[in-house]
Amino acid sequence: MGLALCFLMVNGPEDMWWLIGLSGVMMILHGAYMTAERAALPNIVEEDELATANALDAATWSTALATGAFLGGLVVANYGADVAFIIDSITFLIGALILIPLKIPQNVSKEMQGPIFSTAFSNIKAGFVRLLSEPRLKRIVFAKTTWNLAGGGLAAVFLVIAGSRMTPDEMAAGIGLFFMARGIGTGIGPILARKYLVNKNLWPALVGILVSVSGFFYLLIGLTLFENIYLTIFLIILAHAASGANWVLSTILTQQWVEDEMRGRVFSIDMLLMSISFSISTYAAGWLRDNTAMSLNLGMIWFACAMIAFGIIFTLWRPDKVSRTIV
Description:
With 327 residues, this protein is mainly alpha-helical. It contains 12 helices and no strands. The protein has helices at 2-6, 16-44, 50-79, 81-99, 116-132, 135-140, 143-166, 171-196, 203-224, 229-257, 260-291, 296-316. The longest helix has 32 residues, at 260-291. The relative contact order is 0.15.
């Protein structure tokens, strides 16, 4: 809440360092929250409810993204960014008040106990050892990373630029519209996956295939961009429905495979890898836009083709060659 209000101090290009610094700190807190949330979910629902709980979690997150992005764009367009930041800070306060009473049962191993700074290194090391000890887990932790290797540039650079150009008179509203479509897609995908992808033995392969499917729809966006805004919105929904399904299937597998006292550490590594790949992808896309003559359409096509290729590589990469039955 406090960091959201600090954005009110950003008044012009000279405050760019302040904007970037605040965004970085917020993402650190976001990473800590998301890691804890995903690790804690199996502790508060029954095992046979885990898939449904993750689908609902993704759906509510996506609903918030869709409505927040759309309404945020309208608020900025009509009342300015400062009003949007004030409203944003209030939503953080509401979220905190909802979560504070929540009690989460947890099994804590003895090596995790003690002062946080003196046990931090050993706990991180134990997480890496646990991850590397199981080939199928080592593979699945790269599922979200694989999408973000190209998805960062597509969703955070090219899609933002496209949204601003689709409605040049109301740039914020255009960007919000595209992010609303993204939110709708990531909400629909997990629900459809929960209903139709019921064979859990296929999930390790499907998470890679879904990356390529998402890339295919982004390829269509690049080929048809600026021709019809409704077609673009529809394709964005489909692309992020595939990515949402990838997210929830890989998350459920990690939750099921990793014991309680190790789950948070494994998800932390998952978040670290995903964040690094997202950063590399967004930087590469931004650099190419600023330093080459690459058009917006061509950039989306290149990155979409890369996403398709990354999905194929992930699907073919099977360190867990021994056939296993997923419990």
